[in-house]
Write a structure and sequence with these properties.
This protein is an alpha+beta fold. It contains nine helices and 18 strands. Strand 14 and strand 15 form a beta hairpin.
Length: 326
């Protein structure tokens, strides 16, 4: 499996018997010990929470699995870059190894080395994707770039598209307000439902809780909890073509490009230097914030650090000179 791809998800539950019945009623999942599946293939796993987590009253949680070439080496890199390793490396049933890691902000995920895990189900109840919800994107982007080689593409409203091996695999959402995001930083797991309105009724009828409805880049979404408090997301899907994919988002309004164009026009029409000062200042700030700048082509701090910092420095110096000559 390619390094840095999502391959699986599972639920750590206090009462597996109760939660198995809940997800069977909601999605039609069938269980064989650990694994859950639909008629089209495996979906996810469900197991009883380890005693060490029960002892500290940790709530039930869904966990995203990411494939790696070497669990031991990835654990070392994670620790060196501000992560906390909660568990492992340890052997995983069916072969391979896993380790549970929390990123610098505390969002947990599992790394997996092996070839036995594969969420191949499609349609109702299938795993459609994953999303990272954090308070500060800049605090974790460098971590994931180093750990998995991911690339982050800024989008609208603080969101970032996450790319691995040349394709989109998830989105990152920066939501500083805990009243909106929730008090934790977390990786969300998305499952498909052909009718979200009916799915909400099933959640409550089966002993779960509907937390709320929202719009994300993947589309309309419902946030819900199972009877043990395990939080998961549901995305509306009407065909098997949505299997394990992220729905293409609407094209965001290019406000930064429009602002830059207006500043250039203002400078030309007014013969004033101030629009250039603002233009260069914003250009420098955006380049530092997003770790990507442009000089006829994109230049990132990760791929071309020397060129990136040279260009950023030049833009900064030009900003200062423009202020001095106003």
């Amino acid at each position: 499996m390619p390094h840095g791809n999502f391959v699986w998800a599972d639920l750590s539950s206090f009462r597996p018997t109760v939660t198995r019945q809940f997800y069977s009623d909601l999605f039609g999942w069938r269980f064989d010990d650990y694994s859950a599946s639909t008629a089209s293939g495996p979906v996810a796993g469900l197991y009883e929470m380890p005693e060490k987590f029960q002892a500290i009253n940790m709530p039930s949680f869904w966990m995203s699995y990411i494939s790696v070439d070497d669990v031991g080496k990835t654990v070392e890199v994670a620790r060196a870059n501000g992560a906390k390793v909660e568990l492992g490396p340890i052997p995983f049933e069916g072969g391979g190894q896993i380790a549970l890691i929390r990123d610098p902000l505390g969002a947990g995920f599992t790394i997996y080395e092996g070839s036995s895990l594969n969420s191949s189900a499609s349609g109702e109840g299938a795993k459609l994707g994953h999303g990272l919800f954090v308070s500060d994107a800049s605090a974790v982007i460098g971590f994931y770039e180093t750990l998995f080689g991911w690339r982050f593409k800024p989008m609208a409203d603080g969101a970032q598209e996450i790319q691995a091996n040349g394709r989109r695999i998830a989105h990152l959402y920066e939501i500083p307000d805990p009243a909106i995001r929730g008090k934790e930083q977390y990786w969300a797991v998305y499952f498909g439902a052909q009718n979200l309105d009916e799915a909400q009724l099933k959640v409550t009828a089966s002993g779960g809780e509907v937390v709320g409805e929202t719009e994300i880049l993947e589309g309309r979404a419902i946030v819900a909890k199972d009877p043990d408090g395990g939080t998961f997301w549901m995305l509306e899907t009407t065909s098997d073509a949505a299997k394990n994919t992220v729905v293409s988002p609407a094209r965001p309004f290019k406000w930064k490009a429009w602002l830059g164009l207006l500043l250039v026009i203002a400078s030309a029409l007014t013969e004033s230097t101030w629009p250039w000062v603002i233009f260069l200042g914003i250009w420098t700030w955006v380049g530092l914030k997003e770790r990507t700048t442009y000089l006829f082509e994109a230049i990132t701090s990760k791929d071309d650090p020397l060129l990136y910092w040279l260009v950023i420095t030049i833009y900064g110096v030009l900003t200062i000179l423009a202020i001095l000559y106003v």
